TrEMBL record, chain A:
Membership in a protein family: Belongs to the WD repeat TAF5 family.
Any Gene Ontology biological process: transcription initiation at RNA polymerase II promoter
Protein name: Transcription initiation factor TFIID subunit 5
Residue ranges with Acidic residues bias: 334-345
Organism: Etheostoma spectabile (orangethroat darter)
InterPro entries: LisH, TFIID_NTD2, TFIID_NTD2_sf, WD40/YVTN_repeat-like_dom_sf, WD40_PAC1, WD40_repeat_CS, WD40_repeat_dom_sf, WD40_rpt
Domain TFIID subunit TAF5 NTD2: 159-287
GO MF: RNA polymerase II general transcription initiation factor activity
Bias (Basic and acidic residues): 12-21, 357-368
Region described as Disordered: 1-56, 92-118, 334-381
An example Gene Ontology CC term for this record: transcription factor TFIID complex
Localization, UniProt: Nucleus
WD repeat start and end residues: 416-457, 489-524, 531-572, 573-614, 615-648, 657-689
Pfam families documented for this protein: TFIID_NTD2, WD40
From TrEMBL, chain B:
SUPFAM superfamilies: Histone-fold
Listed name of the protein: Transcription initiation factor TFIID subunit 6
Keyword Hydrolase: no
CDD domains: HFD_TAF6, TAF6C
């Protein structure tokens, strides 16, 4: 045990840790494991870490902090492993240890309980400021599952509680008095300051002051924070702060504000003049102010981007290059003669002629400069049946009518009768031949919506009897007796919240409240694998468009990437501050998008597990995501009833579709991406002119560099149709 | 407004009294005020937390309604054992009890006899989930089929007809923009046009597609045709089909023309068919007829007051048609009368005017009275009752006077019975008892005595109804009797059922202090029924009736008692709710003691006995109320 801590501080901490016995240690372990997993993509595990350790000193700092924590909890084995993995020299830990012990003893020089708290506060600041020193505080393992006391103790500051109101209203007055152009920007400060000041009051047991503070100023906050305020209002005791996830998020992550340099200077000057240390401290410690040069943003621009639990995404976070282009279509020997109808009859018997090169083909032959390399992530090889599917798809694509405002699609509406509000998830196969529904009674049901009935494969004994050489062996293996229109799959033990067909229609994934994701075979209609990893409800799951991989996300705030033949996740994408509510694969399978209750959308790189985009702007939990077929854009729908459109390449919001009055639960682009359809709880299906929405953008003067969006309110023009359905009680 | 709401959020927490009550329910007697406060804050916080988590499950369940299972799942998230047994699709009825200056809401836990459950036949298997497909839109156009909502929702139709200038049809708006786009050469052009567009009141066109024309033909033919089965089908279609909005003007013209022609021809049957069509149109929940009343009302009124509706007025029952049409009229007055169109007052004026006319025929007279009477008791009171004497004299003149045509006689006879029918119930309400024959004669003249007997009949009937009404409300408000089982000794040699079947509901203990002190000034109308059964050596079971007169079926519970000792069973029942007899305190103790030899043969008797006793006892209190209650219950809302 190298770290010789100042006595008082040490005991204090030890004691507090014991009140939360195994949770912390375990959590931390887990997080550490997660990190190792997520940064070790198959081949270059230690290399990645080494690089990060060398490249980013702040990473090393956090690692040290973790090490120190582990050591304090006598988890020597983990310490050893982590040290080895990270490639840290042994003495670096000693250094760090003595460093913090110095801080600790400094605190211990005083006496009494308060000093103890101070010491730990200092300690925590060491950890936090170390990561905050540089501009990009990556979500480090240590911060994912923070030691409750350390984090909380950041609030253990002195300050006259009744003065908080004075401070706040002083700032309010100041902001109201500044020039209009700065006011909107500085108003962003209200909410985070309000929350942190309230929490500080609560933490220091000034309950009545906290209540008064809340009552006085909660009305000033933007309406889209109402849900958070509701949670906040229920919290009035120090004890409540433990275990409240939302609040924990608030403390561990810095609220990001984007403010122009002028406005920031104004604020700084004001606070320094007034000697308003209380607010300045909060700004320093809990806020991250992303300063940009140039014109301050307007109220509308700010409102468009704010609303998430942790402020806006940092501009840096959206700078990474994203290969949003589509993968090159595999070369398939096409049966030609799409022109004459006879080819239809002979499909399946590919006539060997020159490879087809029509509009579809020629486009995909050229390598898109924005596309990832074909082998960026290993993809499964195409099977013969997949090739047949692709051929069919291409054939149909040539016959497709181009949709648009003048050619609206037809909508076939399936009602689930006698479901008694029990239907919780639905998915279609890409060829619209099967529908699967997840139900609250833990069942998964699959329907065939074509005349072709669902059949099981014969039992092994029967399979032995059939002639394997015959032409129709695929027909023969099916058991005619089991033919029915629908099949029920039993296996889950809780409501099924997510469901997804594999692209080849052979498998079905379902995720449930019971914390498992299950893979079902649509040949035998049995469960093949139960993927256990999420400890809490799994809200959504989605198959990769190339099969094999799938993504799941749940209440544990982590999205996991799996391969069907691995029972453990390949990647864990952690960073969301609240439940991961929906997950989608990018059409090129190299990225996944996750929407969350923290009102952000994140885009993750499958290759290295990094978060490459953070989109903020929704004012409610996100429940629907859809990538445009060309991979360039993302559409998202949330409980606020708005559909937002995002440019992945530039990392910008490019459109807002207003019209729905309730949660949007489903979004889908048409196959060529001309039309976006959205379905909502307000019993309507709406069609939007996606082409126009994206077109307008290209003609716009693009402010990619600053990241300032200027949205025009053209929802009504983009809305092509509204179709009411009957609301069945 | 949002701010206000938010500020309220801050302070909402459970009252400390609830904490006390809950503490008592688990056996903690005296809880300090401070602990109560601390507890209530903590509990409120936790409850809010759970509610917020439960909301998540609701959202992911794609529902608008929070269910009990959401709460269960939220509890599971917190690693708390869920509340078992609260599976309810609909709301959970909380029962209310007050007493000792306290008010309690509790969830009633019924005693369930397992053998009953086992023996009852299985309920019908619920229908399996199935898929149904329909076209929500065909190339951008929503077909008007029953599966889709009506193209113009009723509210919109209403707005259209009442406030024609405000109309903004969402559908037309879109069409407008689409047209704007296709017309405009460029997108920018289109935008400019849209913005500059002055919104005019959309011209409502009622073009019918070929299918609709066919449908219209079929329906109208069936409605006035000879095949009754077909007609029923057609009327059903009119009453339910959501896509008729476009055809409404044609239907209304059809009806008004039809009435015009058939009144002249005295074709009673056809008039009846047409009125049934009107009824069907009115019944259609997706149609708003206001725009077409100018055609429909004259037709309906014609059918009410026309001098002659049939070829043989002495034989044919045209009175029924008048009654039916009068009801239609009243219905349309109720639905469509506004301060702008004044339908009701105009109609009333028309009826009154022709009624007052001395030369009016009996048939028309009948129609006028029927039309007025259907408008409700208020109209009867103000317009018909004052004229009873005059009308009585006129009827008398026909009935007892010199020979007149039989038609007049029949007419007078019908008018008389009509007046009696409608006036009796109104008089019963406004006139105090007793009903004196002579008094009636002086007040209402010729019709007096007959009225008197009708009124008396009406009173008894109302009383009967009121009783039923009271009973139903009683079962809602009154907490079910609760039962405490105190067994002095227990041996394991019970028969098939073990005593553990009987679970003392946790809510019960809340009430246990009360039976112990029945003599304290207790709340009004609290009734205790104490039944003690002494079990003989041979007896194994007693059946104790738990319910009193109010519950429809007596709940019986079987208490196995293998012991030879006494088993006092105390039943406590807080009486007939606060709303009913709050002024009359009533306390009753009924002690039923069964002989020790009471074996299974007595079971049925014992279950009947207390029931009948308590029912009679309650009857008395209810009868007292009866005089006021029918008035309250039948007063139609205006």
């Amino acid at each position: 045990m190298a770290a010789v801590q100042g006595g008082l501080a040490d005991t204090n901490e030890e004691k507090d840790i014991k009140t939360e016995p195994s949770n912390d240690g375990f959590g931390n372990n887990n997080a550490t494991d997660g990190r190792v997993l997520s940064t070790s993509p198959g081949s270059s595990a230690s290399a990645g870490i080494n690089k990060s350790a060398a490249g980013a000193p702040e990473d090393q700092q956090t690692l040290l902090a973790v090490l120190q924590f582990l050591r304090k909890n006598k988890l020597t084995e983990s310490v050893e492993i982590l040290r080895r993995e990270a490639g840290l020299p042994e003495d670096s830990l000693e250094l760090k240890g003595s460093d913090s012990s110095g801080a600790g003893s400094g605190g211990a020089a005083g006496s009494g309980d308060k000093e103890g708290g101070d010491a730990s506060a200092l300690l925590s600041r060491v950890t936090i400021s170390s990561s905050a020193a540089a501009q990009a505080p990556t979500k480090a393992a240590g911060e994912d599952q923070p030691d409750v006391n350390v984090v909380l103790s950041a609030y253990n500051q002195q300050g006259d509680p009744p003065l908080y109101q004075v401070y706040y209203s002083g700032l309010k007055k100041f902001i109201e008095s500044v020039l209009d152009c700065h006011r909107a920007e500085l108003s962003q400060l209200f909410y985070p300051l309000f929350v942190h000041m309230y929490l500080e009051l609560v933490y220091n047991n000034h309950e009545s002051e906290a209540k008064a503070f809340f009552e006085k100023f909660s009305g000033d906050q933007e309406c889209y924070y109402e849900d958070d305020l509701r949670i906040l209002s229920s919290l009035s005791k120090r004890e409540h702060m433990r275990g409240n996830e939302t609040l924990m998020d608030f403390r561990t992550s810095k609220f990001v504000l984007r403010i122009s340099r002028d406005s920031y200077q104004l604020l700084k000057r004001h606070l320094q003049e007034r000697q308003n240390n209380q607010i300045w401290n909060i700004i320093q410690e809990h806020l991250y102010i992303d300063i940009f040069d140039g014109m301050p943003r307007s109220k509308g621009q700010i409102d468009a981007m704010s609303g998430s639990l942790a402020g806006e995404g940092k501009r840096e976070a959206n700078k990474a290059k994203v290969y949003y282009g589509l993968l090159k279509e595999p070369e398939i020997e096409l049966p030609l003669d799409d022109e004459d109808e006879e080819a239809e009859n002979e499909e399946g018997k590919p006539k060997k002629k020159k490879p087809k090169k029509d509009s579809m083909g020629s486009k995909s032959k050229k390598q898109d400069p924005n596309a990832p390399s074909q082998t960026r992530i290993p993809l499964p090889e195409l099977k013969d049946s997949d090739k047949l599917d692709k051929i069919m798809y291409m054939k149909e694509a040539t016959k497709r009518i181009r949709l648009g405002p003048d050619n609206l699609p037809s909508i076939c509406f399936y009602s689930f009768l006698n479901a008694y509000q029990g239907l919780t998830a639905v998915d279609f196969t890409d060829d619209s031949s099967l529908i699967a529904g997840g139900f609250a009674d833990s069942t998964v049901r699959v329907w065939s919506v074509t005349p072709k009935k669902l059949r099981k494969v014969k039992s092994a004994a029967d399979l032995n009897l059939i002639d394997k050489e015959s032409d129709d062996v695929l027909e023969r293996i099916m058991d005619e007796k089991t033919a029915s229109e629908s099949k029920i799959l039993y296996g889950h033990s809780g409501p099924v919240y997510g469901i997804s067909f594999s692209p080849d229609r052979n498998y079905l994934l379902s995720s449930s409240e019971d914390g498992t994701v299950r893979l079902w075979s649509l040949q035998t209609f049995t469960c093949l694998v139960g993927y256990k990893g999420h400890n809490y409800p799994v809200w959504d799951t989605h198959f990769s468009p190339h099969g094999y991989y799938f993504i799941s996300g749940g209440h544990d705030r982590v999205a996991r990437l799996w391969a069907t033949d691995h029972y453990q996740p390949l990647r864990m994408f952690s960073g969301h501050l609240a439940d991961v509510t929906c997950t989608r694969f990018h059409p090129n399978s190299n990225y996944v998008a996750t929407g969350s209750s923290d009102r952000t959308i994140r885009l993750w790189d499958v290759l290295n597990g990094n978060c490459v985009r953070i989109f903020t702007g929704h004012k409610g939990p996100i429940h629907a995501l859809a990538f445009s077929p060309n991979g360039k854009f993302l559409a998202s729908g949330a409980t606020d009833g708005r559909v937002l459109l995002w440019d992945i390449g530039h990392g910008l919001m490019i459109g807002e579709l207003k019209g729905h009055t309730d949660t949007i639960y489903s979004l889908r682009f048409s196959r060529d991406g001309e039309i976006l359809a959205s379905g909502s709880m307000d019993n309507t299906v709406r069609l939007w002119d996606a082409l126009k929405a994206f077109d307008d953008l290209e003609t716009d003067d693009f402010t990619a560099a600053t990241g300032h969006v200027h949205l025009q309110d053209n929802s009504q023009e983009l809305l092509l149709g509204t179709y009411m359905s009957k609301s069945t009680p | 407004m949002a701010e206000e709401r938010r500020q309220k959020q801050c302070s909402v927490s459970l009252p400390t009294e609830s904490m006390k009550a809950m503490a008592e329910s688990v056996g903690v007697g005296q809880l300090q005020e401070e602990s109560c406060t601390a507890l209530s804050e903590e509990v409120s916080y936790r409850i809010k937390e759970i509610a917020q988590d439960a909301l998540k499950f609701m959202r992911h369940g794609k529902r608008r309604k929070l269910t009990t299972s959401d709460i269960d799942n939220a509890l599971k998230l917190k690693n708390v054992e869920p509340l078992y047994g609260f599976q309810s699709q609909e709301f959970i009825p909380f029962r209310f009890a007050s007493g000792g200056g306290r008010e309690l809401y509790f969830y009633e836990e019924k005693e369930v006899d397992l053998s009953d459950i086992i023996n009852t036949p299985l309920p019908r298997v619920p229908l399996d989930v199935s898929l149904k497909a329909h076209w929500l839109s065909i190339e951008g156009v929503q077909p008007s089929i029953p599966e889709n909502p009506p193209p113009a929702p009723k509210e919109q139709q209403k707005v259209e007809s009442t406030e024609p200038l405000k109309v903004v049809k969402p559908g037309q708006e879109e069409e407008g923009t689409i047209q704007g786009k296709s017309q405009g050469a460029t997108a920018a052009d289109g935008k400019g046009k849209d913005k500059g567009l002055i919104r005019l009141k959309p011209r409502s066109t009622h073009e019918l597609s070929v299918e609709q024309q066919l449908y219209y033909k079929e329906i109208t033919e069936a409605c006035v045709g000879s095949c009754e089965a077909k007609r029923a089908e057609a009327l059903q279609s009119i009453a339910t089909d959501p896509g008729l909005y476009q055809m409404l003007p044609r239907f209304s013209t059809f009806i008004s023309e039809g009435v015009r022609v058939n009144v002249v021809q005295n074709n009673l049957a056809l008039l009846i068919y047409l009125m049934r069509m009107v009824k069907a149109l009115m019944d259609n929940p997706t149609l708003y007829l206001e725009k077409y009343l100018h055609e429909l009302i004259p037709a309906v009124v014609t059918c009410i007051v026309s001098k002659q509706l049939c070829l043989r007025p002495d034989v044919d029952n045209h009175w029924a048609l008048r009654d039916f049409a009068a009801r239609l009229m009243a219905q349309s007055c109720k639905t469509f009368s506004t301060t702008t169109n004044n339908i009701q007052s105009r109609i009333t004026k028309t009826f009154t005017k022709s009624w007052l006319d001395d030369k009016t025929q009996w048939t028309t007279r009948y129609g006028c009275i029927a039309g007025l009477a259907e408008l409700g008791p208020d109209v009867i009171k103000t317009l018909i009752l004052p004229r009873l004497t005059i009308e009585g004299a006129r009827i008398k003149a026909v009935m007892e006077g010199p020979v007149v045509s039989t038609i007049d006689k029949i007419g007078a006879d019908h008018v008389q019975s009509l007046l009696l029918k409608h006036c009796a119930s109104v008089i019963a309400k406004i006139r105090p008892q007793p009903d004196n024959m002579e008094q009636y004669r002086t007040d209402y003249g010729y019709l007096g005595p007959m009225l008197c007997s009708h009124v008396m009949k009406a009173r008894t009937q109302a009383a009967l109804q009121a009783q039923q009404v009271n009973r139903t409300t009683l079962t809602i408000t009154q907490p079910r009797p609760t039962l405490t089982v105190s067994q002095s000794g227990l041996s394991g040699s019970a028969g098939s059922r073990t005593p553990s079947i009987i679970k003392v509901p946790s809510s019960l203990t809340l009430m246990t202090p009360r039976p112990g002190t029945p003599s304290q000034p207790s709340p009004p109308a609290t009734k205790y029924i104490v039944m003690a059964t002494s079990a003989g050596a041979s007896s194994t079971q007693q059946v104790i009736t738990l319910s009193s007169s109010q519950s429809a079926s007596p709940v019986t519970s079987t208490v196995p008692s293998a012991t030879s000792t006494l088993q006092p069973l105390v039943k406590l029942e807080s009486g007939s709710g606060p709303g009913l007899t709050s002024s009359r305190p009533m306390q009753k103790y009924i002690v039923v003691s069964l002989p020790s030899s009471a074996s299974s043969s007595l079971e049925s008797k014992s279950s009947v006995l207390p029931t009948s006793i308590s029912s009679t006892s309650l009857e008395a209190t209810m009868k007292l109320d009866r005089s006021e209650s029918p008035g309250a219950s039948t007063q139609s809302p205006h």
